[in-house]
């Protein structure tokens, strides 16, 4: 017991200060710092801030770094985030504008494609109708040739001699060689010779040229045979008359005329100026795409 009292009495004042006061305080401070660090509390900067407020000690505490301060400043982070949002929003708006432009271009292309498809469809229908009309015309020509072939050559020859040369050539072309020879034998030698020369040149690839010539020749012969032909309006006058009419009314008249004299209709359209002709053809197409296609084809020949 006496030894214990002697040992306690041997502790000095400094030792008692360290063991009783300083060590518990340091332990508490360290433990508090560790706990604050675990909870993401900035202990270092807090200690620095406190040290900068103590005289003498503030001279040995390092100054805070501006970069670190800026990085840890919530206001600066907010500003940077706002700037990023503005950049992304501008980029998004630009992409939306590009998408709208692409959609607009796509719609224009779709409209152009639809217009082309409609034009192609009308052209196909017109070509089919023209082919049907041509087939009908050739069937009628074949029937006419068969009728003359069944007649005696002496009766058929004088009748055929009254046809225009292109018409005569087409009728003879549809006959067999035997019937053709019998009829040519009974014809005027010059007419037979002219017809024979042209028969030598006609074939399936160029017979449409003779068909066009036959229609034109028949139209001219009709004018010559008509006693009132000199009083008739010229093609230019007729073109001016139809140009003065409304396109719808003129189209109705020309469609009816095309059924009996397509050459006349083509002649009238050829005499018109481009603007009047295009309006009239558009009106004809609205009423009869077949006639419009047929007339356009003949105008291009």
Please provide a written account of the structure.
It is built from 15 helices and no strands. With 301 residues, it is an all-alpha fold. It folds into three domains: 13-64; 125-228, no CATH class; 233-301. The protein is rod-shaped and about 165 Å long. The N and C termini lie far apart (143 Å). Residues 66-72 have low confidence and may be disordered.
Write the layout of secondary structure elements.
Blueprint: H1 2-10, H2 13-38, H3 43-51, H4 66-72, H5 74-150, H6 153-161, H7 165-174, H8 177-186, H9 189-201, H10 207-225, H11 235-244, H12 247-260, H13 262-271, H14 274-287, H15 289-299
Helix pairs in contact: 5-7, 5-15, 6-8, 7-9, 7-10, 11-13, 12-13, 12-14, 14-15
Q: How many β-strand runs?
A: 0
Q: Output the number of helix runs.
A: 15
Shape descriptor: rod-shaped
Give the biggest sheet.
Answer: none
Beta-strand percentage? under 5%
The count of domains is 3
The CA-CA distance between the termini, in Å, is: 143 Å
Query: Unreliable segments (pLDDT under 50, ≥5 consecutive)?
Result: 66-72
Mean pLDDT: 78
Structural category: mainly alpha
Listing every helix as H and every strand as E from the N terminus to the C terminus, the arrangement reads HHHHHHHHHHHHHHH
Level of helix content?
A: over 70%
Labels describing this entry:
mainly alpha; 301 residues; 3 domains
Entry summary:
The protein has 301 residues and is mostly helical. The protein is 82% helix and 0% strand.
């Amino acid at each position: 017991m006496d030894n214990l009292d002697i040992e306690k009495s041997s502790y000095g004042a400094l030792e008692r200060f360290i063991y009783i006061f300083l060590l518990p305080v340091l332990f508490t401070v360290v433990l508090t710092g560790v706990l604050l660090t675990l909870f993401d509390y900035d202990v270092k900067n807090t200690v620095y801030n406190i040290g900068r407020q103590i005289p003498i000690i503030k001279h040995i505490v390092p100054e805070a770094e501006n970069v670190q301060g800026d990085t840890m400043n919530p206001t600066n982070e907010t500003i940077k985030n706002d700037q990023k949002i503005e950049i992304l929003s501008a980029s998004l708006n630009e992409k939306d504008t590009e998408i709208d432009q692409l959609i607009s271009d796509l719609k224009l292309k779709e409209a152009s494609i639809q217009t082309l498809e409609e034009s192609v469809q009308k052209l196909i229908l017109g070509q089919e109708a023209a082919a049907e009309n041509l087939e009908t015309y050739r069937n009628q020509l074949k029937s006419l040739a068969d009728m003359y072939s069944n007649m005696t050559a002496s009766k058929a020859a004088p009748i055929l001699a009254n046809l225009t040369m292109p018409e005569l050539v087409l009728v003879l072309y549809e006959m067999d060689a035997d019937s053709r020879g019998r009829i040519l034998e009974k014809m005027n030698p010059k007419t037979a010779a002219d017809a024979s020369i042209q028969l030598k040149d006609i074939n399936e690839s160029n017979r449409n040229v003779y068909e066009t010539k036959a229609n034109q020749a028949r139209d001219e012969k009709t004018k010559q045979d008509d006693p009132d032909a000199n009083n008739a309006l010229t093609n230019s006058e007729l073109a001016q008359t139809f140009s003065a009419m409304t396109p719808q009314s003129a189209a109705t008249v020309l469609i009816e005329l095309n059924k009996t004299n397509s050459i006349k209709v083509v002649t009238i359209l050829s005499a018109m100026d481009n603007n009047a002709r295009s309006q009239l053809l558009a009106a004809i197409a609205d009423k009869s795409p077949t006639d419009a296609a047929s007339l356009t084809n003949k105008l291009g020949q």
